[in-house]
Amino acid sequence: MPMFKKILIADDHSVVRMGVSFALESYDRTIEIEFAESYFEIEQILSQKPVELLIMDIQMPGIEKNVIREIKKIYPSLKVLLFSAYSGDVVLQYITEGADGYLNKQCNSSQITEAVKTLYEKGFVIPPDTTHEILRLSDKINPERILSDREYEIFMLFVQGMGNLEITNTLSIKPGTVSTYKKRIFEKLKVKSIADLVKIHIGTPKI
Fold first, then answer.
1. From edge to edge, which strands make up the β-sheet containing 53-56?
2. pLDDT tens track for 35-60
């Protein structure tokens, strides 16, 4: 299965860096992994080497919520996965700044691998329990005001991580019908990807 091949793990604790690295290398030994202990080192590595994914703790020297926005300005194709013990409104702030996903540090090795695979495949990843928590904190405009009842129902299924086939089976409708609704939803909300739908749903502006 395809996977990010060049990953930067940024955390000021060596045990965490090694643990994440071990989980990823156990899944795919062709992955090239770099390490950083501070935001200064992140900047250095990104300026010198190609990186596809940055797995970053948000409690490191030099880290503030706007650093993700700054990183994205310079490296727009770089995916950023937050890896932190923080949750709730703290995570929402960083997602709002442009992070592409979040994973709690209490997760196990398989959850790390699954999160990275999902991020690669779908462009965005947040565990369901965290998504619900963030949704309660978000004060964004509800897409329900823009979409029809059926469009909003399908919108919610996409946000929950379902693909076209899963939605087809869940609602007992034709695959072509799902594709039509998907196109309408994208047009009405002015987005180009499922990741953008998720970001809208948690109040995240598109970068």
1. 32-36, 6-10, 53-56, 79-84, 101-104
2. 999 999 999 999 999 999 999 998 88
